[in-house]
Amino acid sequence: MAMLVEEIVRSVELWLRMIKKPQPYVDPNLDPVLLVPGIAGSILKAVDQENGDKEERVWIRILAADYTCRTKLWSRFDPQTGRSVTLDPKKNIVVPEDRYGLHAIDVLDPDMIIGRECVYYFHDMIVEMIKWGFQEGKTLFGFGYDFRQSNRLPETLERLAKKLEVSVSSIRREKDKHHKSFNGAIFEKYVKNWIAIAAPFRGAPGYITSTFLNGMSFVEGLIECPSIYELMACPHFHWQHLPVLEIWREKQDSDGNSQIILESYSPEESIQIFKDALSSNTVIYDGEDIPLPFNLDILKWADKTHKVLSHAKVPPGVKFYNVYGINLETPHSACYGSAEVPITDLPELQCCEPQYKCVDGDGTVPAESAKADGLNAEARVGVPGEHRGILSDHHLFRILKHWLKADSDPFYNPINDYVILPTAFELERHKESGLQFTSLKEEWEVISEEQDDHDDMEMTKSSPAEACATVTVHPQIEGKQHVELSAYLLGVVIASVLGWGLLLFFHAKGRRKGRVSMNIPGNRTLKSSENGLSWACNPESTDIIIVGAGVAGSALAYTLGKDGRRVRVIERDLTEPDRIVGELLQPGGYLKLIELGLEDCVSDIDAQRVFGYAIFKDGKSAKLPYPLENFPSDVAGRSFHHGRFIQKMREKAATLSNVKMEQGTVTSLLEENGTIKGVQYKTRIGQELTAHAPLTIVCDGCFSNLRSSLCNPKVEIPSCFVGLVLENCKLPYPNHGHVVVADPSPILFYPISGTEIRCLVDVPGQKVPSVSNGEMSHYLKNTVAPQIPPELHDAFISAIDKGGIRTMANRSMPASPHPTPGALLMGDAFNMRHPLTGGGMTVALSDIVLVRDLLRPLNNLNDASSLCDYLESFYTLRKPVASTINTLAGALYKVFSASPDPARNEMRQACFDYLSLGGVFSNGPIALLSGLNPRPVSLVLHFFAVAIYGVSRLILPLPSPKRLWTSARLISGASGIIFPIIKGEGVRQMFFPVMVPAYHRSPPVA
């Protein structure tokens, strides 16, 4: 399977090269740029010497890349030579040099096809820089290297010097053949300016501790990599908050009594813990147990590196610029065990997940480590964002464009673009009592141009408390200010992302672990779109109108309000809703809830944790747990009363002073020359009013009366749900959703409170038996009841007799938007899928995260046309996740529904048996269903794996003509199920989003 994906990637990559158009714009005046990745960031190639020197790409990634890593890159550190040696003598690892070195850092990896949520290495940056006029091989180069040899600095820097000689053709200095050590000579000779991005200068303590103790090989294959040790907490750095390793331990006192104590170890003291905990650690390679203890030989080298970094200075003549991530909780210290479950023997640490204490940073690297305050910087930039996403962050692109003088940007504003000026920032840190990082905002004093030179001189003499940021202010029209930074003369930039590739994995793994907040700064506030006026100053002005306050509307209102937008929510009915759907939130949706800061909305509503599914068919059952092993214990699905959840989110949104909720029925959108200017609505007392805003977001649910103005709705109703509430009974598998593969269609059970279980009976078609004349009761008792698990039978009959039977049509509608200036469509008003898999809220919350991130760079929403063009990217960016969940819902419903076609029934049985196999056969599909891994390619592979599994059962051991015919019909039927759904979602948007022009839209210039 992995090799198949690799071949698909190569084919697409070749095709993209063939259709590549000539670069439309080249600026010959730009100075050359060399992009240098961090450890584990280069794409390597494994050369098979026994197979005609065949090359295979190797990268620390998922799917095919992870497969090649696990099979090609096994290596050990040789203390005699200081090299990491590949264990397979038949394999040789090389660095590709294609595309002037850019191939090694920008290559179409599987995730670029499968979805946006994983690594975007330098790809987006390269695309942007080419738009600015940079040209590959002329002014744009890449430098990849074998990250396993990160301790071979002289050799690596020798290659770097050669690359710089080629890149910087304007520099004609003779090479200093006598100097090959790294003391700054190479930088002095070839580099004028150096930009570091998300570089863990002082290490990444939280994740490195976890890496050592909870998975020494972290990605099978890359073992004993020197850079892992280099990324330990620098012991020679004066940490504001010292990273520690804490262990709850059980010990005996002198009297033989047992005591539970919490021990704390500094970075230096932790080394002995690592040694003891990993003394018997091994890893299996080629059927052999290989010892893998804590490597003191590598540690000696890493310690020398730490000492160098502690005293390093930027060489004379080189200007240093630093970009780092802020505003995310970042693991810093790790605690193992608890007072209730202490650690009795240190090797137990390998099986114990830590709880983190967090500081400010990019979610992976603490800001204190990444800001490199020991180096004299021309500027430091704090970009709110996660470690793996900063390289594709629009703030970063705008800042780099300004620094590189790639194009004129008259509205570049460092205050709004989160630039932190160096001198004031460095002075300010001395008066900080804790880790407090902030962007340049109200607390910074803006001084005039006339004062600039004088205050620069005075600043060096003044105390830290008197420091201020030096900027130049130019008055603009309409009360706006244009602020530009001085001394930004850049030529060559080295995007030195030390640790990027390696820590991508740490981030993906560690972000799921438990965290305890410590010294986390407040949320960033954006300026509003009307000259910075606050809601209190101008209550009639609104940035965004949201129509509807359901799951999407209320969550969006809180999210945008938290970002400082003035939000007006108009909801038809603000009383607690009472529905029979929207009651099960998948783990992927819960993770999005956490990302939005809304996880407390499932507290105090008697919500039940859901850990997976159980499927039943013909008296057999199988338990299918969510793959939550690498997540903190709190991460699971949640099931609840829909109305309680909605009210909690509405209440939280209403706590923000800049969010206004009101009850009213929106009757139409206000349109002027093709642009939506606001809405017309009726109040509770029938008064007709209008509301205006630069952006109107319609989230008025599945019964939307506004969607026809903004999309081409093709609503289908494949079935209806009949809802019951079972009381005072227990599910066969507690805290699990239950799916009964029944005739004619599935039946669902899941808890919605501590004493109630929701039952949803699917009835195909749009017509259901009548409730009033008893037809429904008869149908449920005689057709449905005999098929449900015996443990639920009596409660099911009681619920029927009690009454309260409710029905609801199940709607399905692909997203077919008409991009309209001034408006955006979201939630069920925009896109629906069959509710069998409970994926609706996960899609909605994922969309909200996307919209939040797209709007964050914008301080002005008034240019409706430019905003519409920019937000068109939303429709493409959402596709990999949304389409995966949509397609799975539609396909699974058709597979689980009975059919007179023997081939379809065989597919139905094959699906049940395939999931019952467990392991990868159930984990993959359940990861898709849960929203934990919504990848289109994975969905298609598993879907046809089920079909092939069904075919193999038919034709083995001896095929017959009838069985061959049924097998052919099974494959044909499977294709007939999934391909029409994929076509409706959009093949290119779903599988190849990077090929859609809107995908690469940049924010409009304010």
List the domain count as a whole number: 5
Mean pLDDT: 78
Distance between the termini: 46 Å
Spatial ordering of strands, largest sheet = 31-30-29-23-22-32-38
Count of helical segments? 28
> Main sheet, how many strands, which sense, barrel?
7 strands, mixed
| Structural classification | alpha/beta
Estimate the strand proportion: 15-25%
* Rg measurement, Å: 30 Å
The number of distinct β-strands equals 38
Low-confidence stretches: 1-6, 60-65, 108-120, 169-184, 415-539
Question: What level of helicity do the residues show?
Answer: 25-40%
User: What does the overall shape look like?
Assistant: globular
Please explain how this structure is put together.
- There is one protein chain.
- The protein has 1006 residues and is α/β, with parallel strands linked by helices.
- Helix content is 33%, strand content 20%.
- The chain folds into five domains: 2-169, no CATH class; 205-496, no CATH class; 544-601 and 643-713 and 813-876, FAD/NAD(P)-binding domain; 716-812, 2-Layer Sandwich (D-Amino Acid Oxidase, Chain A, domain 2), CATH 3.30.9.100; 881-995.
- Strands 31-30-29-23-22-32-38 form a seven-stranded mixed sheet. A seven-stranded mixed sheet has the order 27-26-34-35-36-33-37, sandwiched between helices.
- α21 packs antiparallel against α23 (879-896), α24 packs across α26 (936-955) and α26 packs antiparallel against α27.
- The two termini are 46 Å apart.
